[in-house]
């Protein structure tokens, strides 16, 4: 990766299966890159200091806080955001479960929770409620009190086992 | 809260990284996991002129078992240590502590070497590596050196790292037989920085007496606080509840230096240190008795 | 009419968009040529602004403009008052002081905006803000509300004699007589500390001025788009019809997003007109702690007078209320506190005087609960103190004092936050309390489990707290229901939505009447272009007030449907059925007409519209109650404490909620869960720490502790439905219920758990450290 004009770095990254090439300032946060450069506004910013988890996306399959990464750092990597999980007409089983269990209210923290949960269920397809709550420890929600979120994750685990 | 501008380097070898550090000295900051540095940069509490990104250098992430112990590369991510069976076997205290460190997303990026170099007295790894008598390999263009953990942490966010040095590896010696360990922490929420924490590592002799003890505290001083006199109280004797109480009393009264903040006062921290120290020693002794090999 | 949809656990209409990241929030708005704003905010809590030099900032590459108060000229003036003082009560003192768009001469709280930078992006705007040179003359800081009222205290507002912002007394019966007749009089001092709403989405404003079309569009994270529209039109010299305010999807409101007008709400639209380019400002989390309102600081001196067998004869509650640097929200919160200080108990003598005090802290406006938690905390703590003193079981004491089912409507004789008489419309308090007691197994726990656990050395406590919640107040809301040619229904209302499921619960109300599927009802909230009469979403009133308007409008549309269908099908209305979007003759179902066809016929291409009728299958209705219904609930909790570390674990949590007709149990439970999580936060985790210089020591999520999944217990929710006679739905509000009794519950449980340490809790919030200190002393 090289610096081209004046402080801009070339960046090539695959997001939700699509390859993007851009030039960015090194200090541009990944969260801002996704939301404002690429108009992938599904990933939300709640705190910008790495606590709330609303900005969580998957990098090479694992959840990361996109507000704690510079866009240039994902050069050559694969990112999955909430937009890559499913569509309105074709919801991912995790998304469907959240709707059925009422696992969201205002929906602001939800994309970060969905990506975290998708990765979690991949390594932990049979979680207990306690393990689910542990897995959610890095995601804050102010609306739901987490109970229906836990129900949704349990439901998603069941759905995905049936597949 | 957007970070201030900086000059960005993404070296692909350690030598390249070291050259940048040698050139810029104190103006340069090493970027490992970024989970501590980037929040500070977003708040503009840290405004490094130069950032050296270590994430593109291969071969700095590894977990190897050797005769001299467990070797962990500086860029090894927390989740890698968390899921490593080698670490579970060779350094169970470290392995068991991993899930307590921050949150899943932080453990994807956070690194072993980064956490140690950052030297937050409330973090677990500086205290654990000190309690386990670990040592660190530091490199610069001038050469390399090993330094024991007990000499590495100098103060609040301050280590013996020179501005042109990078920590590349940690080595944890194998525990002697009959060694037990425990980490006891109290935090407002399970994954927060602890209000107080203590690690106890105890080795028993063939008669069940304490052969060696290490008591190291976190969050009660500007660095891992080693309670040597309290540990000495335990050495050479049978570990009775009296002995445990005495050691915890001494450690919490005289060998730690807690401050007050919005989460806990000095008094409360000393009280917690006492309580947790007793629990840590009890659990370490229990484990030592179970580890017969 | 049999209810087919109301009361059903129906999945939400809005979820697919939210779940796939397709829902638009304010920061998702992206307009060509858009500029970004960043503020320079004062670090001083109390200071004169001596000098401001923005020249270096103006010259920074990428900066388009920098504005100060001076630069605004005659367009600089404070925001409007939101709530006037009560007109019908004697001896009211009220000094209205409102926030300003940018500081002109004096800073009154840390975080007040001093200058605004507009640049090509937020990064550059923040760089430039650092180049602004500001010189302040610091002044002594007023942090303590008691000290603030001392004669020699420095003044927050120099044009007043003191820091007294307001004073109000309310009386019922004669407390002095009650006191003399009492066997026992108990006095306590109760301290309650502030918390933030901390919605996951910070605030934001995007404004676009179309100079050619002379139209202003504003996207705002507001809970009240219509008052914002009206206020902006007035401030900017525009007609209301030239201003469109859109509250799109909002990431949580909880009260502070209704503050209006925030300085940024006044400034950003003005800037967009001035610069003739769209301007966006998105609050960051640190700003949120300084620039978004907070709540709860109060000091109470309370007295309760009882007979020996536990009948409460009277209550006296005098208190101070911290309003922060300004008081735009009037007396809403302290009046709410007064109205809830008697709880759901039959107390015939009551006196309460409160003083609202200015301090150099961030402005106080309602946060979920809005003064009610404080009132409930006061009465419940006094009941527990009385129970101990009298040697009566605390639950038994409460039972002896609850308002009985035959006492409704129960008039308290004092006024509520809407300046209407406080009348509790309906309820069955004993049944709700009993349901909670049964669900948590109170008797068995006290008799068997707790003694056993105590013998094992465990410190496990139980607590039960009943509470009332005034809801559904006026002034009014409206709704317009339209059947479209597609057969689907479009509904518009003036209030906004911040996650409480309006797109679904309202759709259920409408679909019930208009005979369509819930998914075929499109609800538009929060867009002044779609509906422009109304107030906003607050005070647990959305479902009751807007919902009632929806119900009325859809009932009228239902009538129109039957009337028209009867004409078309040449059959009397009583012989027709409406189901699944089709009107049929009951005995001849093959003769039918769809709603879409009816809608077309109702909008004639030829022929006249009869006088007294309107085209289309559409109706608009308003609902404006004189006073709102009062909900009731009872929470119970079993909590274990480690007395050595003072760490707690909630083992069980039970809620029984009586909010009348439940529109959608799934949504209601979610509201309760969320409220409880905020209540637990206010009890043990959330505390805003100010230092003596007025600086917030924990202005971030690292140190302002929100409750996470690992802290929350599983909550069992039970229902009792005592219908309200005040509206056709029989509904009462429930948005704030979860949060209201929790601090009182927590205090009770902690005392009960630490039974061997004689700890009395007369303050909120608690923390392990505080419990350690209380146990020591």
Any key phrases for this structure?
heterotrimer, B: 293 residues, alpha+beta, Uridine Diphospho-n-acetylenolpyruvylglucosamine Reductase, domain 2, Uridine Diphospho-n-acetylenolpyruvylglucosamine Reductase, domain 3, Enolase-like, domain 1, 5-stranded antiparallel beta sheet, 4-stranded antiparallel beta sheet, 14 strands, 36% helix, C: 777 residues, Aldehyde Oxidoreductase, domain 4, Aldehyde Oxidoreductase, domain 3, 7-stranded mixed beta sheet, 20 helices, 32 strands, globular
Task: Describe what you observe in this structure.
The complex is a heterotrimer of chains A (163), B (293) and C (777). Chain A is of the alpha+beta class. Chain A has five helices and five strands, in the order ββαβββαααα. Chain A is 33% helix and 15% strand. In chain A, a hairpin with a 2-residue loop joins β1 and β2. The model of chain B has no long low-confidence stretch (mean pLDDT 96). In chain B, α10 packs antiparallel against α11. Chain B is globular. Chain B is an alpha+beta fold. In chain B, strands 4-5-10-6-7 form a five-stranded antiparallel beta sheet. In chain B, strands 11-12-13-14 form a four-stranded antiparallel beta sheet. Chain C has four domains: 158 residues, 2-Layer Sandwich (Aldehyde Oxidoreductase, domain 4); 203 residues, Aldehyde oxidase/xanthine dehydrogenase, a/b hammerhead (Aldehyde Oxidoreductase, domain 3, Alpha-Beta Complex), CATH 3.90.1170; 165 residues, Aldehyde oxidase/xanthine dehydrogenase, molybdopterin binding domain (Aldehyde Oxidoreductase, domain 4, 2-Layer Sandwich), CATH 3.30.365.10; 198 residues, 2-Layer Sandwich (Aldehyde Oxidoreductase, domain 4), CATH 3.30.365. Chain C has 20 helices and 32 strands. Chains in contact: A-B, A-C, B-C. Chains A and C meet through α2, α3, α4 and α5 of A and α1 and α18 of C.
Topology diagram in text:
The complex is a heterotrimer of chains A (163), B (293) and C (777).
Chain A: E1 9-15, E2 18-24, H1 30-37, E3 56-59, E4 62-65, E5 78-80, H2 93-100, H3 110-123, H4 129-135, H5 147-162
Parallel strand pairs in A: 1-5
Antiparallel strand pairs in A: 1-2, 3-4, 3-5
Helix pairs in contact in A: 2-5
Chain B: E1 7-9, H1 14-24, E2 28-31, H2 37-42, E3 50-53, E4 63-66, E5 69-73, H3 78-82, H4 85-90, H5 92-97, H6 104-109, H7 112-118, H8 124-131, E6 135-140, E7 143-148, H9 149-152, E8 153-155, E9 158-159, E10 166-172, E11 179-186, E12 196-204, E13 210-218, E14 225-226, H10 228-234, H11 241-254, H12 266-290
Parallel strand pairs in B: 1-3, 2-3
Antiparallel strand pairs in B: 4-5, 5-10, 6-7, 6-10, 8-9, 11-12, 12-13, 13-14
Chain C: H1 15-19, E1 35-41, E2 47-53, H2 55-59, E3 63-67, H3 69-72, E4 93-94, E5 106-107, E6 113-119, H4 122-129, E7 133-138, H5 145-148, E8 164-172, H6 175-181, E9 184-192, E10 195-196, E11 204-210, E12 215-220, H7 225-236, E13 243-246, H8 263-275, E14 279-282, H9 285-291, E15 294-295, E16 298-306, E17 312-324, H10 332-340, E18 350-358, H11 372-390, H12 394-401, E19 410-415, E20 421-424, H13 429-440, H14 442-455, E21 459-470, E22 477-483, E23 489-493, H15 502-514, E24 521-525, H16 542-569, E25 576-579, E26 582-585, E27 588-594, H17 595-601, E28 617-623, E29 630-642, E30 647-658, H18 665-685, E31 715-719, H19 742-753, E32 763-764, H20 768-776
Parallel strand pairs in C: 1-14, 9-32, 12-13, 17-18, 23-24, 30-31
Antiparallel strand pairs in C: 1-6, 2-5, 2-7, 3-6, 4-8, 8-18, 9-16, 10-15, 11-12, 11-14, 16-17, 19-20, 21-29, 22-23, 22-28, 25-26, 26-27, 29-30
Helix pairs in contact in C: 7-8, 10-11, 11-19, 15-16, 18-19
